[in-house]
Sequence to fold (235 residues):
Amino acid sequence: MSTNAPDQTGETTGNRLPTAAVEDYTKAIYSLTGWGSETASTNDLAGKLGVKAGSVSAMIKKLDEAGLVERVPYHGVRLTAEGTRVAMTVLRRHRLLELFLAEVLDVPWDRVHDEAEILEHALSEDLTDLISTKLGDPAFDPHGDPIPDRDLEIDETETAALAELAPGDTARFARVSDANPEMLAYLSECGIAVGDKLELTERQPFDGPITVRIGGTRHVLGLTLAQAMRVDHTG
Ligand SMILES: [Zn+2]
Fold:
């Protein structure tokens, strides 16, 4: 049975199992360091987790003592191999849950993240693997984020922001952050989905909106959205 069940004490030391808070921290550090910079600062983590910098510092000390992070003086923290394993375990649960909710229960893609945030800490390893099998061992969640496999390997292929394309460039809409439900709902309203092939046809100067063509439809997208939408060039 599961070796992932969270305990209720909020503490982690030595061989103790990860708590929900530990899982959230490793996941946040992975997301901050996996998308570019090498270390996560206390302020970035505080912003991401919605907690005070003092709380982050106290938790980082515990994570360090538990061997899950290493501190880089004046820069922040990065995950150790064991910390990465914890992050991959919870990311696997989170992303499989999102896909399960979307595909099996028809939960809209802008709502699956909040549900998965809660359920991810309760799912046993056995149930996680059953969900994966049921879904055909999928490689991506509804937002295009890669799902770690049973060996906790993850396929992080490189993507660029849609906003970085030049007029005439074609690409595939590969991935979008799941953290902003309004943005996801808006994309749905526009009929834009992960996997769509697109061409950037026009961009306004001075950080103005961009125009893309998807199928036969033209969409004018604001810069914030065009920066959140990640594309790859397989299209
Ligand atoms: Zn999510």
